[in-house]
């Protein structure tokens, strides 16, 4: 039998999801675009949904993920905290380890 | 940050799913109960859905998974083929390897 192993991973704290593919993409787009609304648009999510995702992640993890500044010519902006960058880095490392195992176990 | 890594795995062939948690449970119950209808009931699936799952898996993998015999006092029965048992065994091994990695990467 030939097959490819596929997987989906996410992180939980006390049974609640704190990180997954959608949240990972959202954070990366915030980092790239410097704006929650632009990032939300990029990942096909409403601003309200994106904001709610971030707030819930922050509450569950007990850390601040995004620093926002209001107003100004370009309507404010958002930057990731060091903790958010660390979380992204760890999630990427975990994903890489799973991907390596996935390849090893797939039968061609 | 503390978190638990969670995962879901499945097997695909040519982009089509051929094995996953639901299918794994269904096959195991068929093996245990010797009947597709009893197994379907056990996993909360209609007989039609279970039969369709099996047929699709067999078509996609190009192997026979279940041998059925009709009639008789107890209304026939079903037994797994050697290939089905091998598939279950391999899926269990894959799951165990992922579970080991999951534990290793979870941060308490």
Summarize the structure.
Two copies of one chain form a homodimer. Chain A is α+β, with helices and mostly antiparallel strands and 108 residues long.
Task: Please give the structural blueprint.
Two copies of one chain form a homodimer.
Chain A: E1 4-13, E2 16-19, H1 21-33, H2 36-42, H3 47-61, E3 66-69, E4 77-80, H4 82-105
Antiparallel strand pairs in A: 1-2, 3-4
Helix pairs in contact in A: 1-2, 2-3
Under CATH, the homologous superfamily of chain A reads Winged helix-like DNA-binding domain superfamily/Winged helix DNA-binding domain
The coarse silhouette of chain A is elongated
- What fraction of the residues of chain A are assigned to beta strands by DSSP? 15-25%
Total count of strands of chain A: 4
CATH architecture of chain A: Orthogonal Bundle
Helix/sheet category of chain A = alpha+beta
What is the number of domains of chain A? 1
Please give the oligomerization state of what you see: homodimer
Largest interface: A-B, 26 and 26 residues
Largest sheet of chain A: 2 strands, antiparallel
| Helix-strand sequence of chain A | EEHHHEEH
Low-confidence stretches of chain A: none
The N- to C-terminal Cα distance of chain A equals: 8 Å
Quick tags:
two-stranded antiparallel ribbon; 108 residues; 4 helices; alpha+beta; Arc Repressor Mutant, subunit A; homodimer; elongated
What would you say this structure looks like, in words?
The structure is a homodimer of 108-residue chains. With 108 residues, the first copy, chain A, is α+β, with helices and mostly antiparallel strands. Chain A has one domain: Arc Repressor Mutant, subunit A. Chain A is 55% helix and 20% strand. Chain A contains 4 helices and 4 strands. The first copy, chain A, has helices at residues 21-33, 36-42, 47-61, 82-105, and strands at 4-13, 16-19, 66-69, 77-80. In chain A, the strands form 2 sheets. A two-stranded antiparallel sheet of chain A has the order 1-2. The mean pLDDT of chain A is 93. At the A-B interface, strand 1 and helix 4 of A face strand 1 and helix 4 of B.
């Amino acid at each position: 039998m030939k097959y490819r192993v596929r997987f989906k991973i996410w992180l939980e704290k006390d049974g609640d999801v704190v990180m997954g593919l959608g949240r990972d993409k959202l954070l990366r787009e915030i980092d790239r675009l410097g704006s929650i609304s632009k990032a939300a648009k990029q990942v096909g999510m409403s601003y309200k949904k994106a904001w709610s995702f971030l707030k819930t992640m922050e509450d569950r993890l007990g850390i601040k993920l995004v620093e926002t500044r209001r107003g100004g010519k370009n309507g404010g902006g958002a930057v990731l905290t060091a903790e958010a960058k660390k979380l992204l880095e760890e999630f990427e490392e975990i994903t890489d380890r799973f991907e390596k195992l996935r390849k090893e176990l797939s039968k061609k």
